[in-house]
Amino acid sequence: MTILGIKTLIYGVEDVPVCTKFFEDFGLPLIESDAEQAVFVLPEGSSVIVRSIEDKRLPKCALEGPGVREVVWGVDTHESLGELISSLSTDRAVTIDDDGDAHFLSDCGLPMALSVFCKRHIVSSPDSLNAPGAVTRLNTHRKWRRRAHPKTIQHVVFAVKDFKKSFAFFRDRLKFRMSDYQRGFGIYSRAAGSNSHHNLFLIDAALPFPGLDGRPRFHHANYGVEDIDEIMTGANFMERKGWPKSHLGLGRHRIDSALFFYLPCPTGGEAEYGADGDFIDDAWVPREWTVPLFGYAHFVHNLPEWLREAPAWEFKYMDSNGQLPD
Ligand SMILES: [Fe+2]
After folding, report:
1. Within a domain: residue 31?
2. Is the pTM value of this prediction over 0.85?
């Protein structure tokens, strides 16, 4: 009964052609496009579908505004899918479509689906790093790139009213593992069949940050690229194409260790290039980030006002049973 990760993100947007152009420039491979929708398929076999927010195929749910309006989680086998459907059907409506995919709402009304996923093997070869006295690339220059080509969908983020309750559904019913807990901010979790640090982040909708207004909304989605060079090549390409600039620029989270580059996205929310995150398994010990901003960033190019003062260095390890402190 294993969920492997995100198979498809279905966006509901205000302007399908503009959002289609954005994702093309962002580097997602466009497979088909018509007046109704655009479909992109990434090298791992996951996909992004862009539809109008008015499209009747989008499920009714608790989310407000445009952005991702359904997450299709990839399941390893038909048997696993059947078990999950049986379990979920005990206390909620589960709709099976013509492809056999199961659609339902989480306890807090997030629109989810399950589908068998034949995830494709991908190949990456990040350039070795040199440091003074530690040479791993001698007489060999780094790869040169024209633009970014994301290979994976790494995670999706939703603002919710009660992130602890929202997470409990994913932990107890879909067997997600808690990766880290950012006190007062949210919970990072991964599907049991994924080694990415997190596939899902549930953030407190009431936090005083841009894009949050207390209501359940899509926040951002992260697309995985190879390394810092691919992130910044993509970022430069997007700027040359005239898309709005990133507010923070390049940075690295402490949570997940990942390099990040968020771009304002016409879908609503943001689209993130990500690289060099933590890959973890069940031996990982979740941490409580008692000073949330310490976990947020190791560094960031455009230092925002709320990081002007360096946060205290403080966190602690948690029991790895997925239970949260009060
Ligand atoms: Fe992210």
Report:
1. yes
2. yes
